[in-house]
Amino acid sequence: MSKTLVVLNPRAAQGKAAQIFPQVETELRAAGLDFDVVQTRAPRHAVELAQAAPGQGYEGVIAVGGDGSVHEVMNGLLRASNEGETIALGIIPLGTGNDFIKSLPPPLAPGKNRDNWRQAISRLTSGKTILVDVGKLTGDCPAPGYSMPQYFTNGADVGFGARVAKAIRHVPFTGKPGYMFAVLQVLADYGLPRIKLTLDDTEVIELNTTITAVTNGRCFGSSFWLTPMAEITDGEFDVFIGSALGRIGILQVLPKIMKGTHLNHPAASFKKARKVVIESAERMTVEADGELPFLEAHRIQIQVLPQRLRVMI
Q: Whole-prediction pTM value?
């Protein structure tokens, strides 16, 4: 039995992952890695594959794709470990965003990326791993196909970001151009949900929010460094609270977020928390690692699980 399972999402980056993978497989074998390969066949199939991997004798699972692939594999590993320390996760970034990998040590500064899959192979064969935090997400009215709890590596949000994550599913192109096109679509018709935010069962904040995000990682949507100071090993979330902005205000602040220079913006505030509850009388769409586990939630709870996910670095 091979020690490592490689899970390929052939649909990642609109099929480019499948085109590149033969080169990836050749170089992985040349690097001396002993592995089996399986391709996903449907949404959330990678969850099942990763969950079964430890029981089949695998000591690591490598996700080949984007943040959605990483999200699914990580959810499977956390389920297999019953929220204890997981077997090792490796990442070969062949998606459109590749955001979580930017927060692995040493974490990157705004504008940088780790999209080079050949460099990723050297990390997978180094033998080095690290335990990182994950988020645990529960709530009412989960979307069809999503079992509770859901786990995330990078972050979860309500408001503008979640609306964009929903809109981008219908955009015919990917990457930064696709994300900006989805932004413009949402700007044409968007609202500011009124939420009640409770941090660590003590601090309560009520506001109309442009976006409220509970983050573990630093970068979202390929190029948006919402919490560039976040650390994935500190046992806490960085909570970004964006107060109400109009369309012009959003368009003005987006370039700052892309550079990570929005930290002193008057509409932005930042908190630290280990547990976050978000409630609203309105139906909330909730985004987590680019996925949409809730489309009509009224209450969600997010808890940090410190140092649970082992990652190859």
A: 0.95
